[in-house]
From TrEMBL:
Region forming the signal peptide: none
InterPro entries attached to this UniProt entry: Chemotax_Me-accpt_rcpt (IPR004090), MCPsignal_dom (IPR004089)
Protein name: Methyl-accepting chemotaxis protein
Record-stated family: Belongs to the methyl-accepting chemotaxis (MCP) protein family.
Pfam families per record: MCPsignal (PF00015)
PANTHER family: LYSOZYME-LIKE PROTEIN-RELATED (PTHR32089:SF112), METHYL-ACCEPTING CHEMOTAXIS PROTEIN MCPB (PTHR32089)
Keywords: Transducer
SMART domains: MA
PROSITE patterns cross-referenced by the UniProt entry: CHEMOTAXIS_TRANSDUC_2
Start and end residues of each Methyl-accepting transducer domain: 112-273
Gene3D superfamilies: Methyl-accepting chemotaxis protein
Species: Metabacillus halosaccharovorans
Length: 273
């Protein structure tokens, strides 16, 4: 029987050695069948037990002595201001008679447990936010790809406009040549060609105006092409940044998940303390 001792006094002398040998903050009380004979508080756990203080018949140590069995219970923080685990053990002499008892209290690492739980909760929420941002980055990348396609289509459309303008200019040049030939023929006809000369001049005027307008439209389409190319370059750069951002968010999410797992292990360890 491990709780058989020579005397309560010999056990009391060993308590400082026990406290020094155990790597935990303990408080230890020893009693006979009626009162406490010794109390050694810990650094952060002190139940203010006085030597000579009578044992309450309802407290675990008294029950353990009466029932001759070991008792253990967790005491909530509302009783003493902090949470601790208490163990009550009856003590027997060499003749197996109960002569007293020993009570050991060890403070539970509630603060560590709470911190671990808060860290786990914060990391879980942060991971959820990162996932939301990452999903947004993927959606943004999808829209950017669509913009790149649309930008390329716009560039192709502008190029088709160049073809149309070239055709219009060619028709205008031909019309101008036709007007010039008509003016020459009208001059040859003399007075009879006066009316035809007026029509020829109007044709040439219309042709010059068409060429001038075509040039202006060509300049505008050139500017549109330039802006479209710049927009395409900007969109591609945005796509590159968005892709890098999505990759970074995935890496951050992975790191947060690893920290979250470590936090859970810390929480499990804190519950075991």
């Amino acid at each position: 029987m491990i709780n058989k001792i020579d005397s309560l006094e010999s056990l009391i002398k060993l308590i400082p050695v026990i406290k020094a040998a155990v790597p935990a903050d303990l408080s230890i009380a020893v009693c006979n069948l009626e009162q406490f004979l010794s109390y050694h508080p810990g650094e952060q756990i002190n139940l203010n037990i006085k030597v000579g203080q009578k044992i309450n018949p309802e407290e675990p140590l008294s029950i353990a002595i009466r029932e001759k069995k070991r008792l253990q219970a967790d005491v909530p923080a509302e009783f003493y201001g902090f949470e601790f685990t208490g163990t009550a053990l009856p003590l027997f002499d060499v003749n197996n008679n109960v002569i007293g008892g020993i009570a050991v209290q060890i403070r539970k690492q509630t603060e560590l447990k709470n911190i671990a739980e808060q860290i786990a909760q914060a990391l879980s929420e942060a991971n959820d936010q990162i996932k939301t941002v990452a999903e947004g980055s993927h959606t943004l990348a999808k829209y950017i790809q669509e913009l790149i396609i649309q930008s390329a289509q716009a560039g192709d459309n502008v190029k088709e406009t160049d073809v149309v303008l070239a055709m219009i200019k060619k028709v205008a040049d031909q019309t101008n040549l036709l007007g010039l030939n008509a003016a020459i023929e009208a001059a040859r006809a003399g007075e009879k060609g006066k009316g035809f000369e007026v029509v020829a001049n109007e044709i040439r005027k219309f042709s010059r105006e068409t060429v001038s307008s075509t040039q202006k439209v060509n300049e505008i389409t050139g500017q549109i092409q330039k802006v479209t190319r710049q927009m395409a370059d900007s969109i591609k750069e945005m796509d590159k940044i968005g892709s890098n951002q999505a990759t970074s968010m995935q890496q951050i999410s992975k790191s947060v998940m690893e920290i979250e797992q470590l936090s859970k292990r810390l929480n499990e360890y804190a519950h075991k303390l």
